[in-house]
Amino acid sequence: MTADDTGATTIAVVLYPGLTALDLVGPLQVLAELQRFAPQYRTVVVGAHTEPMSTDLPLQLVADRTFAEVPHPDVLVVPGGRIGTIRAMSDPGVRDYVRTAAASADVVGSVCTGSLILGAVGLLRGRQATTNWFFAGVLEPLGATYHRRRWIEDGNITMSAGVSAGIDWALHLVAELTDEATARRVQLALDYDPRPPFGGIDWIHIPRLPRAMRAAIGLLAPVITAKPERLTRAGA
């Protein structure tokens, strides 16, 4: 890892309109806690501007810094969402920042469908990847191979599955950046000991409607990826 001019190793979390709030806030809480135990790490939220942006909740979020102010973070984290993420896949500002920041970052990470933005700028070709279960079919047109895992690593690119998996992934990232003992301290500080009242997801008996929705998104994958792919081929 390298350090910025303040002596800190910078972790930049990307904010864009319409993203899923927990995709950003969950990992951000873990990474902010890391800063307490390892102050050499500095986590900032970056965006195209520092005005409030909408999310998928009745809640707006504001970036700490603009893309231009944090051009070369050591760690890049791209959260996901639904329609907001699909739009971001073709947004020139988001695309340019993710592509250029990833080129110099030591670690490039995504949460949920944030992996689709990585794929949209050509970073996932030939890689093993994961994303939200509903959007698995969109990864293949972007050149990636989907795996239903809580998180996955391929080279310096690391991704989590859907939404809440971002917290597990962030703890894994903390261990990678520091050590397991520090990650456990962060986990304890956050009292993170999830025990869903109905157990884990029953992947074998997914109800018909969610399965149909997933299939529909898969059928739309060529449409979703068409413009981002054209932009990538054009070098935009």
From TrEMBL:
<dbReference type="InterPro" id="IPR052158">
    <property type="entry name" value="INH-QAR"/>
</dbReference>
<dbReference type="GO" id="GO:0006355">
    <property type="term" value="P:regulation of DNA-templated transcription"/>
</dbReference>
<dbReference type="InterPro" id="IPR002818">
    <property type="entry name" value="DJ-1/PfpI"/>
</dbReference>
<protein>
    <submittedName>
        <fullName>Transcriptional regulator GlxA family, contains an amidase domain and an AraC-type DNA-binding HTH domain</fullName>
    </submittedName>
</protein>
<keyword id="KW-0238">DNA-binding</keyword>
<dbReference type="GO" id="GO:0003677">
    <property type="term" value="F:DNA binding"/>
</dbReference>
<dbReference type="InterPro" id="IPR029062">
    <property type="entry name" value="Class_I_gatase-like"/>
</dbReference>
<dbReference type="Pfam" id="PF01965">
    <property type="entry name" value="DJ-1_PfpI"/>
</dbReference>
<feature type="domain" description="DJ-1/PfpI">
    <location>
        <begin position="10"/>
        <end position="175"/>
    </location>
</feature>
